[in-house]
Amino acid sequence: MEPHKHVRSTKEILKKDEQGINKFNTKFAIKITNGVGTMWTAYLFSLLALFSLPAVFVGVFPNLAHIFPSSILKASLIALVAWIAQTFLQLVLLPIIMVGQNTIQAQNDAKAEVDHETLTYLATLQDRQMKELDGIRDILSEIKKHDHLR
């Protein structure tokens, strides 16, 4: 079914953002946002956070050092986890997610605008049809009156 000439499409509303590097940025941000917004990513980030937990325990309770393998107590591993969590995720991933969320919101706003235009058009069309039906009913009443008079 083709859209009616009085109603704009979502693509028409969003067309200004679909050019050149903006098109790439938008698609990339949405893909990252949708990928990061999953429970699997939450599980992965939880595992990443847990890698440095033994080092924190040993820092607070030095007598626990013998429980954990020495490889996960190294400062380099702790520094790597901290860099990933504090630098990469916060400085890089957060702005990408914000762009993705803004783009998704703009798409939702455009869809809502199209829906509003469509519903407004349909309501106007229905009002016209009701007026026409009222006119037809009046004409039929007049015809019935003339038929009874004969």
Shape: rod-shaped
> Helicity level, as a percent range?
over 70%
Number of helices: 5
How big is the Rg? 32 Å
The biggest sheet amounts to:
none
**Proportion of strand residues:** under 5%
Low-confidence stretches: none
Question: What's the N-to-C terminus distance?
Answer: 49 Å
- How would you spell out the order of helices and strands? HHHHH
Quickly count the domains. 1
Q: Let me know the number of strands.
A: 0
Rounded average pLDDT: 85
Which class of secondary structure composition applies to the elements? mainly alpha
What does this structure look like?
The chain has helices at 10-14, 20-36, 39-51, 53-60, 75-149. The protein is built from five helices and no strands. Helix 2 crosses helix 5. With 150 residues, the protein is an all-alpha fold. The mean pLDDT is 85. It has one domain (17-149).
